[in-house]
Amino acid sequence: MVDSYRGLLEEALIAAATRAVMYLRSAYVSRKSVGPGRGGDVSREFDIVAEEIITKTLRSYLGEIRLVTEERGSLGEGPWLAIVDPVDGSLNFEAGLPIASVSIGIARNAERASVEDIETAAVAEVFRDVIYLYDKRRGFRAIGAEARRREQPSNVVLGYFESAESFEPYVRFAEAMRWRPRLRSLGSASLDVVYVSLGIAMGFIDARAKLRNFDIAPSLAIASGLGAKAYLCDGTSATSITVKEVTKVECLVVGYNEEIARLLLGAVSAQAPRAPHYPLSHR
User: Fold this and answer.
1) Whether residues 196 and 123 fall in one domain
2) What is the CATH number of the domain that holds 28?
3) Interval 172-181: pLDDT, tens
4) How far from 170 is each of 173, 206, 209, 223, CA to CA, in Å?
5) What range defines the domain where residue 26 resides?
6) pLDDT tens sequence across 46-90
7) Which H or E run contains 201?
8) Residue 122, phi then psi, degrees to nearest 5
9) What backbone phi and psi angles, to 5 degrees, belong to 56?
10) Pick from 54, 119, 204, 244: most CB atoms within 10 A?
11) What is the pTM of this model?
């Protein structure tokens, strides 16, 4: 059944992401606050409208599906499950900062569906004409730009650093690496994870206990397919994160490869080992 639907799943994802991005770029966007969404953040009208566009588009292609979304939580039933963040980087979008994305993943609607079960995923940049796509059988491709995994990652660590304590894992990671990577906080976790998986950055850290599964599940599926490694900070693989219901992700690290991911994991747990010489040519 999955094979017979594979082309349709990708077509549905591309249509849903494209239509949401077109709305977000239009003159009809309202930034009016409408209260907290199911994910806990303050929702704006553009969040609600973008999510409704995605929902209607997916249902027009796939019929009734289960939805796990930022604004409405978990609802509906059907053979497929879609986990959706209509605007990842809402604060950036509201402020006009050009880093935000539309994030959608589709899995079979199984009782214990997790990131590992996502069949196809899309992360679309709102401010650039780029969609990152991953399919379990077809692999990774990008629409609108040349995007391939670099042989070596760049000397950049991404993450969220909102308190003095939140910088400590980065400091320990730099000590383990024996040099100090450049630090950036972009404000769109799904793009952070995709950028790490492509080698645009070497790692990602978020220990704020503010992430939710819909923020990063589709991008984690892309990362896994490209060979990046992601862990919860208890050492569990991030591919085990449920997509069946809305859940909080207390702590997440993503590395370009296993070695970097393990060093990040040790840095978060305050047990970072010393790294062997790591061959980055542009420190």
Assistant:
1) no
2) 3.30.540.10
3) 999 988 888 9
4) 5, 10, 17, 21
5) 2-143
6) 999 999 999 999 999 999 999 999 888 899 999 999 999 999 999
7) none
8) -140, 135
9) -65, -40
10) 204
11) 0.91
